[in-house]
Amino acid sequence: MIKQDTFDFLAELADNNNREWFMDNKVRHDAARQNVIDFAAELIQQLHKVDSAISPDLDPKKCVLRIYRDIRFSKNKTPYKNNFGISLPTTGVKAGGAEYYFQVQPGKSFIAGGYWMPEAPHLKAIRQEIDYNGKDLTAIIDHPEFIKLFGNFRDQEKLKTLPKGYTEDNEHIDLLKLKSFIVWHELKDKELTKPGIINKISGVCEKIQPLNVFLRNAIV
Fold first, then answer.
1. What superkingdom heads the lineage (predicted)?
2. What is the pLDDT of residues 33-74, one digit of tens each?
3. Which residues contact 15 (CB under 8 A, 6 or more apart)?
4. Maximum Cα interatomic distance, the chain, rounded to a whole number of Å
5. Which of 133, 171, 176, 177 could make an SS bond with 159 (beta carbons 3.0 to 4.6 A apart)?
6. Can you list the alpha helix ranges (DSSP code H) found in the chain?
7. What per-residue confidence (pLDDT) applies to 10?
């Protein structure tokens, strides 16, 4: 579970996002990061049971994203993220495909899955899979339990024009216009500090797994 101290550190970091404060509180950062690494280790083993594409040999340290922001091309010059992220790829040890993603942030924690902003070759392959087997995808995303957990899958950023090679009368045109294929489910801070949260997240990921399988099959 996530410790309250981890939430406290992140909340204070959000109010003091500068190097001087961070260095003064580096010990707290290291403890919070270790808490998230330990959480990731449990999560990896549990999610392997849900989706065998999650390797049980994933290194939890490498799955926890760095807290340092890349500010080179950003107008926001604050040096640190105010969250910890755990990326769990299903295509080996590197991201770049269907994955599960967990983020811990005071008041804004969530578990997510799918494929965010695929690069052109993968996007083309996913659209082709939707064109050929769109009913398989709609059976997943239109299931009442799926909608209850994640909302309307179609309510994501879309192209304003038709994707190349497809026409407006395609029965799956609303899905073909999508730029990303992701879902997320919010988690309350209190939930994350209680025993059993790994099992709850695992249950949510069971509902994400068919979507990830569809996306993986598209880009094989």
1. Bacteria
2. 999 999 999 999 999 999 999 999 999 999 999 999 887 777
3. none
4. 60
5. 177
6. 4-15, 19-24, 26-50, 60-63, 120-141, 144-150, 173-176, 189-192, 197-219
7. 98
- For residue 76, how many other CB atoms are within 10 A of its CB? 8
CATH number of the domain at 100, please. Answer: 3.30.930
Statement: residue 82 has pLDDT above 90: yes
Residue position matching structure tokens 């249950």: 203
Task: Give the per-residue pLDDT at 201.
Answer: 97
Residue 105, domain extent: 4-219
Nearest to 153 by CA among 177, 188, 119, 169: 177
Nearest to 154 by CA among 133, 132, 120, 181: 181
* Strand partners for 212: none
The DSSP output letter for 68 is B
Q: Residue holding tokens 């099959």?
A: 217
Sign, CA dihedral 187-110-57-98, equals positive
Residue 146, C-beta contacts closer than 8 angstroms, at least 6 positions apart: 140, 153, 183, 207
What backbone torsions phi and psi does residue 182 show, to the nearest 5 degrees? -125, 160
The pLDDT tens digits of the residues spanning 114-145 come to 999 999 999 999 999 999 999 999 999 999 99
DSSP state of 58: -
CB 122 within 8 A of CB 115: yes
Cβ count within 10 A of residue 116: 15
